[in-house]
Specification:
Layout: H1 2-14, E1 20-29, E2 37-45, E3 50-60, H2 63-68, E4 77-88, E5 96-103, E6 109-118, E7 123-132, E8 140-146
Antiparallel strand pairs: 1-2, 2-3, 3-4, 5-6, 6-7, 7-8
């Protein structure tokens, strides 16, 4: 019974997680053994804002280590978020909230996407960056999605 409860709680908490959908990839370096180095583009629908999708491009390390999931991917990433349907808010948003994070090294490094609300301009601002347990990277990318003034962004 305890395992069932834990599994149900894990699924419920992950229901709000953004899920990546692969859009495409391009090879950047040929590797004789293992997958090539590449740039991948993934789409993430904002789990708290209907009608907004973020596209994140990032380097993915290939070779033997990359194929085994042991390589540390580069910190560089780029983001572009766009309105892809009518924008609505099922529940009020936090002023700043992490929309998504993904491991880009075996243990220490994560790629993060944070949503911020620019209330005076009724705009959603999305920032992507990577961090490490010891030292993060200042490399980042930002994009914004203006929301029609007739649809105020609800805040908690």
């Amino acid at each position: 019974m305890t395992k069932s409860l834990i599994a149900a709680l894990a699924l419920a908490s992950c229901a709000a997680c953004a899920r990546a959908e692969s859009v495409g990839e391009v090879d950047t370096v040929f590797k004789w053994i293992g997958p090539d180095h590449k740039i991948v583009v993934d789409a993430y629908d904002d789990p708290d804002v209907a009608g907004v999708t973020c596209y994140v491009s990032r380097a993915k390390t290939g070779g033997i280590k990359g194929g085994l999931g042991l390589a540390e991917d580069k910190a560089e990433a780029s983001i572009a978020c766009r309105q892809t349907g009518p924008i609505s808010f099922p529940k009020p948003l936090r002023q700043q909230d992490e929309m998504f994070s993904e491991r880009i090294s075996l243990v220490f490094k994560k790629l993060r996407v944070v949503r911020m609300v620019d209330r005076p301009r009724n705009t959603l601002v999305y920032l992507t960056y990577s961090d490490r347990v010891i030292e993060g990277s200042p490399q980042n990318s930002v994009t914004a999605v203006p929301v029609d003034r007739g649809t105020p962004i609800p805040l908690r």
